[in-house]
């Protein structure tokens, strides 16, 4: 990968802190993911007019929302005129570091969350919503939907899983996939933890006991992808694939879609 391949990957917005381009990452065959085609983000409800103009200038025509009904009602997305398709692929709101679990912490119902807990929650979500993640990849493989942006609320859990699955299906190096997951810490989580720390301290909660739900620990995604490798790394025809690709195919992804995805998004 060129040294400057991801120099402009982070999209600087006032109303969303975790928005970035998934392009620039190295992939198999000395190729890399095309810039300006796939974007991930946190909530879009607080975008400013300047933010809308910025995202519109990127030519993003498809927006995929992983949030469930109650989240959407709380935070209606603001979209720009160029959006042609606004697609709902709800993945529930049980794993969300910015809404449901933080509320549980404030209510005293949750006082600690470990990295193992988070990996378990991710695997539960992957198990329950495989068809939705397969739909995401199918949409990304369709050039008519590009450029596209997908998002949840905090932009790190559901969007983190979706990004990992896409990048793995594109043949991106595992360490780069984990780097992308952890970038949420720099863009959003560190600030969010600093904001919440005084309130948690008043409740007698040690921030380190709940840090895993508020951040994107590398070990969490590493454990999830290793589990997928173990479960889905061998396809029914006897060939091998990344666990992510095998998982997507097992949940309804057209067998032609991975090659279409790579054809459209690798250069």
Q: What pattern of helices and strands is seen along the backbone? A: EEEEHEHEHHHEHHHHHH
The assigned structural class equals alpha/beta
Distance between the termini: 11 Å
State which percent range the strand residues make up. 5-15%
**How many helices?**
11
CATH topology: Protein-Tyrosine Phosphatase, Chain A
How many separate domains? 1
Description:
The chain has 267 residues and is an alpha/beta fold. The chain is built from eleven helices and seven strands. The chain has one domain: Protein tyrosine phosphatase superfamily (Protein-Tyrosine Phosphatase, Chain A). It has helices at 49-57, 69-74, 100-106, 115-128, 130-140, 158-169, 174-202, 207-214, 218-232, 243-250, 257-265; strands spanning 20-21, 26-27, 31-32, 38-41, 62-65, 85-88, 148-151. Strand 5 (62-65), helix 2 (69-74) and strand 6 form a beta-alpha-beta unit. Residues 94-99 have low confidence and may be disordered.
